[in-house]
Amino acid sequence: MIRAFALGVVCAAFLSSCAKGPEVYTVTAPNGELAFHISNDELGRVHYSVSDQGTPVINDSRLGFAFANAANFADALYIAPATSGSTDLLWEQPWGERRVVRDHHNEQSFTISDGSRELTLRVRVFDEGVGFRFEFPDDFKDGKLLITDELTEFDIANPSDRTFWNPAYNKDRYEYEYFKTDVASVKSAHTPLTVLDSTERYVTIHEASLIDYSSMVLRGTQSSVLKGELVTGYDGVRVRRSGAFTTPWRTIQVTDSATELLSSNLILNLNEPNKLGDVSWVKPGIYMGIWWGMHVGENSWATGDILGATTAEAKRYIDFISEHGLDGFLVEGWNIGWDGDWIANADLFSFTEAQPFFDLETVAAYAQEKNVDLVLHNETSGGIKNYEDQMEDAYALYQELGVNHLKTGYVGFSNRYPRHDVHTNEDDQHLVYEWNHGQFMVNHYQKSIELAAKYKIGINMHEPIKPTGLRRTYPNFMTREGVRGQEYNAWSEGNQPAHTTILPFTRLMGGPLDFTPGVFDVTFKGMDASERIRTTIAKQLALMVVLYSPLQMAADLPRNYAAKLDLFQFIKDVPADWEESLPLEGEIGEYVVYARQERGSNNWFIGGITNEDARSVTVDFSFVGGGTYTATVYRDGPEADWETNPYDAVIETMTVTADSTLDVMMAKGGGFAISLVKQ
Ligand code: NOJ
Ligand code: CA
């Protein structure tokens, strides 16, 4: 039972110390529904809980720290309220899923003390969730503080078997399909983790503003408690910091519906505003690339007969992209280091020298001439030292060549998987290995972003750290993978149809996703091959809208688009930067429908996708407001089915206004896309 309720607390303002138990404090949301409670027990252990309109959502859950070189901060603690405030403001994103973001929350800080040391716990409560973080003062400890555990727990008050989670500490980082289990079956999970709880509330646990700290995974305890666990460094220390610092925000989004969850801006709101100033050089867009050919085995990264990255091939792509009015061109395999087993080439990659047959200067100039943004690729194979040694020279060169987009990659290597080789340790300089989501790598990714900003380069990071909203502070941190993406359909047993209906409610809650949708030839190895894409062709179009990314890939080969120019028209029309995004309806793991308004225009684009079940939805166009629109609908045909007939698609045009509705049938593994152009 939540203490605040056990004590019958009624809070007049958003903070109140309770009449009968001054050790229990409550901070409420602006609309008064969601509430964060904090208290300490007889042993002085600090707990928090969260309730929604009086119903517990998170039961009493522990807070505190353990250190390697200081007394733990866990028991015999006192809580005192400190500063408070309320915020209600609008701010603008330079690019994003919506231009204007509202930040509306109540804030309260608490001083937590063990008699000799003090920490600040800062709490922000929004209508759709809470965030809290710890602030360590300069005098908490002389010299370096070594954190061995953050005690933060999340005790799910209404567990259900609809807990969606991505396993942590595995060989392929975040690249797994999501498990759907009860809370007690969670082992180690990355965040965002989402529970559709037994009261039908969505509860998403994540973190915001992960800087110079290790990322938090959730360790299952075979009960309703998920224990926050900081990813360890090579020596067992999870975080090392000196001087004053703050932890990332621990976040819990709580909503009554799927659409409210998908509309939340909480993660962005808990990040610092743009630190880069004028970022007009960060350009969203749709890109194609010398890429899918490697994954389906038609091309190679390495030199040889089927080498993908040649000057001629690059020009051919640039011509196609320019002819069809798309924005960017990615080239992989352009640089030295791909020959042999590239995953083992961590120390061999050069980021400034091109392979034979690829003339970087010529391609960069040609792209500029054709008004196409060149996106260069830097695969590190996890060789961080090799990369850091070259990063500055490489980024400076790219800027000189007019290249302002970079895709980075961190595929790990060797039997030390999944630890990334990466640096020599401080004491005896031997080589050590680090997890890709521990503090060392968090700091590496940050270095890359800040250095790229210096050279006006926008980053699309593969094998990244999970997104925690830093794109607000560093708008050149545009998009990233951190997911089991389309590439898995090329060379593994692939992704199940439900996968992409889970992602908006989990991985995308952290931020944009470079999933690389838009493949038309979904049976590239034949209908019977296990390597195929488990969607209809119409769903591939829908994913361009549903899976938000400011750099959105149209992943297929030019010839497959040329063969279906009628469907390709949607990819030519759809933008990657939005004025507004409206989730219209959905349910995690089932289906989702999004409408998004193009930035700087009256045009709208809709994408709807379903899992393995066929279903109909009714699109209500009232969101367009006034005016008459020409709608082009790309939907599954009557015989469509991802498994037996993925190419059955229908294209229709019609006129719609705010009063119109449209029933659309989605096939098994299917979907639909609509473009709305104001007349
Ligand atoms: C994995 C990335 O996700 C993929 O996009 C890339 O092509 C390969 N690594 C090679 O770097
Ligand atoms: Ca990958």
Protein architecture, described:
This protein has 3 domains: 7-269, Beta-galactosidase, Chain A, domain 5, CATH 2.70.98.10; 284-496 and 509-524 and 548-563, Aldolase class I (TIM Barrel); 577-679, Immunoglobulin-like (Sandwich). With 679 residues, the protein is an alpha+beta fold. The longest helix is centred in the middle third of the chain and has 17 residues, at 384-400. 16% of the residues lie in helices and 35% in strands. The strands form 6 sheets. The protein has an 18-stranded antiparallel sheet that branches. It has a 7-stranded parallel sheet with strand order 29-28-25-24-23-22-30. Mean pLDDT is 94; it is low at 1-22 and 414-419. It starts with a helix and ends with a strand. The protein contains 14 helices and 38 strands. 1-deoxynojirimycin binds at residues 291, 332, 379, 409, 411, 462, 481, 487.
Q: Which structural class do the helices and strands define? A: alpha+beta
Counted by DSSP, the helix tally is 14
Q: How far is it from the N-terminal to the C-terminal residue, by CA?
A: 58 Å
Name of the CATH first level of the largest domain:
Mainly Beta
Please name the CATH topology of the largest domain.
Answer: Beta-galactosidase, Chain A, domain 5
What portion of residues belong to β-strands?
35-45%
Tell me the radius of gyration.
Answer: 25 Å
Bound molecules: 1-deoxynojirimycin, calcium ion
Assembly annotation: single chain
Count of domains: 3
- The CATH level-2 architecture of the largest domain is identified as Distorted Sandwich
Largest sheet: 18 strands, antiparallel
Number of strands: 38
Shape: globular
Helix content: 10-25%
Average the pLDDT over all residues and give the rounded result: 94
